[in-house]
């Protein structure tokens, strides 16, 4: 027997409709690419997004066509998103941090027909124009006065002026594709995750929960996490859904620029990867800056170092919540919000849990398995492959790339290695491909990195496995020191002592000028391994000559 409730397809146009009706005067403030801070409202965004929908229709865009954006977080980018998705076209967010070759690959793979672009990216598009045969139109997200020299490109503001806001949105199946985002492809070609209206809507509802992002109509939200990378953790959807004020940082993500927006706009909630928060803390300390309104920050994308959580908590009274997710999970998968038992613990004991990646909200199922597919205990120490299932988790990649990606029970293998504890708190111990296999046992490169990162002289630290004749692999610690600092191997090894198992102690410490970050701000271990390919551990040399 079927229920008798209304059939109300979960399509994202209803999110911006809601914001327009009930939070129409709520502000969206952006640091524009042209420079000045610009202010708009949800009502204006709604109106202008409808005009863009008509503009796209006028350019021949139909339901299912892919329309890309190559843009920073701004109000205009939100307008483009809703304008595209409202008519059933697919919003393909391009990550400008990819190499030109990869960008061309994904634009061609997606067969994008239109690209909305910020001024910043005109040079790369002009240079690669000939390699993008499917793209019929480029729309530069600016006004006539700033168009730059892209022959044939259309002007965003002119299209808005020329089109009416009379446009019907939605009316299609909630399983219709809404967004496309390629994973950065640390192995092989990037693969496309194709979000549906329903998956985005459910992700929005779940992440609005108080134990997840928990943003409200009273919050002022600064999404530093880019809209081009895993949907800004859904904030361009949950912000309007909640009626929060949004503050969009544009292209300036350095400590001083982020701090300025936090203070001048009265931001209460923000989300970003650890590197951004590290830059902010450094800036605050150098300038004796304060955080007068910020209450909560969510940090994810890579493991949050303890020093950042303590810095925010002890120096600025800001609560940090650690989150884990991936492009394939829309992206939020777990968040380290205390449950009742953890909340009853002392502050230091709670910190042990807050540094984990956290527990799944409703609609995310997790399991741990060993290589043979046997399910592992939730004892907080046994590591295994982390698998995930749920209505906003990818079921396949665009165009079937990668083939069948789910196991027989419908779980997706995240490629992460993790533990689960008795509170259901998950902790990533490594990426499956980065775990160090020493004498048949696994060493977590991330755990050593995180501790090393807490050394007062370290700016960044990375740990990789290096070949060893006896143990197969042994850990090597690479450290980039803070400007003006000098460091020694012994002092770093002494710092790790007692914090990790003795046999996890790196066989060597190498000081480097640069620890490369990949397109999504994470340490690029593949490149590090490549750079260190001729390096031989002193312990391996000793062994070879013994
Ligand atoms: P990619 O960087 O491969 O494009 P994503 O941005 O989707 O992909 O990254 C997802 C991966 O990032 C996860 O599988 C995990 O390895 C890592 N990750 C995300 N959040 C965290 C976190 N809080 N701690 C450790 N690793 C994380």
The stretches of 5 or more residues where confidence is low (pLDDT under 50) are none
CATH class annotation of the domain at 8-24 and 37-205: Alpha Beta
- CATH-level-2 architecture of the domain at 8-24 and 37-205: 3-Layer(aba) Sandwich
The biggest sheet amounts to: 8 strands, mixed
Provide the β-strand percentage band: 15-25%
Separate helix tally: 17
The whole-angstrom Rg is 24 Å
- Counting DSSP E segments of at least 2 residues, the number of strands comes to 24
Strand order of the largest sheet: 2-1-11-10-12-13-14-15
Folded structure, characterized:
- The chain has 546 residues and is α/β, with parallel strands linked by helices.
- Among the domains are: 8-24 and 37-205, Rossmann fold (3-Layer(aba) Sandwich); 434-545, GMP Synthetase, Chain A, domain 3.
- It has 17 helices and 24 strands.
- An 8-stranded mixed sheet has the order 2-1-11-10-12-13-14-15, sandwiched between helices.
- β1 and β2 form a beta hairpin.
- The radius of gyration is 24 Å and the shape is globular.
- The termini are far apart.
- The mean pLDDT is 95.
- Adenosine-5'-diphosphate is lined by residues 183-184, 186, 230, 300-303, 322-327, 331, 357, 414-416, 428, 431, 520, 522.
- Adenosine-5'-diphosphate binds next to β14, β18 and β19.
Could you write a compact summary of the structure shown?
This protein is an alpha/beta fold.
List keywords for this structure.
single chain, 546 residues, alpha/beta, Rossmann fold, GMP Synthetase, Chain A, domain 3, eight-stranded mixed β-sheet, seven-stranded mixed β-sheet, binds adenosine-5'-diphosphate
């Amino acid at each position: 027997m079927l229920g008798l409730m209304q059939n109300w397809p979960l399509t994202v146009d209803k999110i911006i409709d809601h914001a327009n009706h009930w939070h129409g005067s709520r502000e969206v403030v952006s640091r524009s690419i042209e420079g000045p801070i610009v202010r708009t409202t949800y009502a204006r965004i709604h109106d202008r997004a409808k005009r863009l929908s008509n503009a796209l229709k006028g350019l021949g865009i139909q339901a299912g066509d892919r329309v890309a954006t190559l843009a920073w977080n701004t109000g205009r980018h939100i307008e483009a998103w809703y304008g595209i998705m409202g008519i059933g076209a697919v919003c393909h967010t391009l990550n400008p941090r990819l190499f030109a070759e990869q960008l061309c690959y994904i634009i061609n793979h997606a067969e994008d027909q239109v690209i909305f672009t910020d001024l910043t990216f005109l040079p790369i598009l002009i240079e690669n124009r000939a390699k993008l045969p499917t793209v019929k139109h480029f729309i530069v997200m600016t006004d006539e006065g700033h168009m730059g020299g892209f022959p044939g490109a259309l002007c965003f503001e002119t299209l808005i002026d020329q089109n009416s806001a009379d446009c019907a949105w939605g009316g299609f199946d909630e399983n219709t594709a809404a967004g496309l985002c390629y994973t950065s492809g640390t192995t092989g070609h990037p693969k496309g995750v194709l979000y549906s209206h329903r998956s985005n809507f459910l992700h929005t509802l779940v992440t609005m929960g108080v134990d997840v992002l928990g943003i409200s109509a009273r919050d002022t939200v600064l999404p530093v996490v880019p809209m081009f990378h895993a949907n800004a953790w859904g904030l361009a959807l949950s912000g309007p859904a909640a009626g929060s004020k949004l503050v969009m940082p544009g292209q300036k993500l350095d400590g001083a620029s982020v701090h300025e927006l936090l203070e001048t706009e009265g931001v209460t909630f923000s989300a970003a990867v650890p590197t951004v928060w590290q830059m902010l803390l450094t800036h605050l300390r150098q300038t004796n800056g304060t955080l007068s309104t910020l209450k909560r920050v969510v940090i994810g994308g890579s493991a949050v170092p303890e020093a950042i959580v303590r810095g925010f908590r002890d120096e600025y009274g800001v609560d940090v919540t650690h989150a884990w997710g991936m492009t394939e999970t829309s992206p939020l998968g777990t968040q380290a919000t205390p449950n009742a038992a953890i909340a009853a613990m002392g502050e230091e004991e709670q910190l042990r849990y807050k540094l984990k990646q956290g527990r799944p909200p409703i609609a995310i199922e997790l399991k741990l398995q060993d290589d043979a597919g046997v399910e592992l205990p939730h004892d907080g120490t046994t590591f295994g492959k982390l698998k995930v299932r749920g209505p906003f988790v990818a079921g396949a990649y665009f165009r079937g790339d990668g083939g069948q990606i789910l196991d027989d029970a419908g779980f997706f293998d995240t490629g992460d290695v993790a533990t689960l504890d008795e509170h259901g708190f998950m902790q990533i111990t490594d990426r499956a491909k980065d775990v160090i296999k020493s004498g048949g046992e696994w060493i977590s490169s991330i755990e050593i990195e995180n501790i090393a990162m807490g050394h007062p002289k370290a700016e960044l630290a990375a740990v990789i496995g290096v070949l060893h004749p006896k143990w197969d692999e042994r850990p090597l610690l690479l450290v980039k020191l803070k400007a003006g600092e000098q460091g020694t191997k012994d002092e770093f090894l002494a710092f790790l002592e007692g914090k990790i198992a003795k046999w996890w102690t790196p066989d060597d410490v190498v000081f480097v000028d640069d620890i490369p970050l990949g397109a999504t701000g994470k340490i690029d271990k593949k490149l590090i391994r490549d750079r260190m390919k001729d390096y031989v551990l002193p312990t391996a040399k000793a062994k070879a000559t013994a």
